[in-house]
Amino acid sequence: MTSQPGKPGRMSRGQRAAGAAALITVLGLTGWGVAAGSLAPEPTTRSAQIEGPSSAPSGASGSAPAEPGSEADPPAPNGPASTPTSSGPTSSDPEVPATEVPAAPDPGSDAFAPPTATGKIIDEPPPVATPQTFDEPADVAEGVAARVAAMKAVDGEARGIGEVDGPAVQFTLEITNSTTESVSLAEAVVNVEAGTDRSPAGQLSGPGATAFPADVAPGQTVSGVFVFQIPPEQRTAVRVLFHYQAVSPVAAFEGPVPLQGEAP
């Protein structure tokens, strides 16, 4: 067939097939695939990687585009990173056994109450009984009597702390128990006052001082020897005080004492 001048000639079937094959080859080289029965282009992975970011802000300077195939580093945080906190114990936390706290004592209970007193408290000195002469006995309790059995002028011997030897008088006191039970002398005390002003006389360790026994058996009489420093000028008025028990009155004996030797 001859073509007319000035008009494009019709392509043969072979020419059209060759042109389509060439077009497919060109599209493959450019990264575009041809779907079966269609020439619509599909973006391939490589074309997506080399495609520049479309959302980059205009006018940005100093930043280089990321290289194809590389991952961009995440942006650095502007502030200190926050550490997530847990609102409760996790399964990996060790279990702490509960500690029992002892309950506070009840203020109304007697946990801190003071101990009950077992003795008697004396706020003032016990009363002194009516004084007796040295030759008369004095009742100190029911069935218990005391008397001054002997008096003797001696040279006092200082052996204890605070004692001063010098002229002294030795007193022998007897305690008689007329009851049917033993009586205790554990609290018995002997004191002496001398002179008209009743100054306390100092007790000395000798000579011959002997304490009372611990108790007196029923129907028995015991004695004790006590030495007190008394200057000669104070011996005209002497008072001997025998304190049998803390709750009993004090027995008193008074009169002159010997200046020398033993009283008759």
Explain the overall architecture:
By secondary structure, this protein is mainly beta. It has 2 helices and 11 strands. The protein has helices spanning 13-29, 45-50; strands at residues 138-141, 144-156, 166-177, 183-184, 189-194, 199-200, 202-204, 215-216, 221-229, 238-243, 251-255. It has a 5-stranded antiparallel sheet with strand order 1-2-3-9-7, with no helix packed on it. Strands 6-5-10-11 form a 4-stranded antiparallel sheet, with no helix packed on it. The chain has a two-stranded antiparallel ribbon with strand order 4-8. A hairpin with a 4-residue loop joins strand 5 and strand 6. Residues 32-66, 68-72 and 109-113 have low confidence and may be disordered.
Brief account:
With 264 residues, the protein is mainly beta. It contains 2 helices and 11 strands, in the order ααβββββββββββ.
Number of helices: 2
Class by helix and strand content? mainly beta
Written as H for each helix and E for each strand, in order along the chain, the element string is HHEEEEEEEEEEE
The gyration radius over C-alpha positions equals 64 Å
Number of E-state strands:
11
Residues in β-strands, percent: 15-25%
- Average of the residue pLDDT scores: 75
Write down the overall geometry. rod-shaped
Strand order of the largest sheet: 1-2-3-9-7
Main beta sheet: 5 strands, antiparallel
Measured between the Cα atoms of the first and last residue, the distance is: 194 Å
Poorly predicted sequence stretches spanning 5 or more consecutive residues: 32-66, 68-72, 109-113
Helix content: under 10%
